[in-house]
Amino acid sequence: MDSDTEKIEWRVNVQAIKKNYFEVIGYENDGLYEGIVMVLQGEKSHRWDIGIFKKNFPNIQLEDIKIIEKAGKIFL
User: Does 63 have pLDDT greater than 90?
Assistant: First the structure.
């Protein structure tokens, strides 16, 4: 490769990461927690559907998800 005319780029398949997020981070879905839960999400971050949380936290309600203003980052 001629370093003056070519360069290496790193590209990420964001859609694949989103689709397989829990496998990528090594998350194990091995149980339920039925106690009190609070989820913190950055205002600028991806918003997970409450159904994702209900898989492990069946008693979670929308008011248990708190949005932190001006926090987070959107990956496009």
Answer: yes
37, two tokens: 């839960």
The pTM of this model reads: 0.55
The Cβ of residue 60 has, within 10 Å, a number of other Cβ atoms equal to: 20
At 26-59, the pLDDT tens digits run: 666 667 889 999 998 888 888 888 888 898 899 9
Number of alpha helices (DSSP H) and beta strands (DSSP E) in the chain: 3, 2
Long-range contacts of 54-58 (CB under 8 A, 24+ apart): 55/29, 56/29, 56/31, 56/32, 57/32, 57/33, 58/32, 58/34
Domain regions of the chain by residue span: 33-76
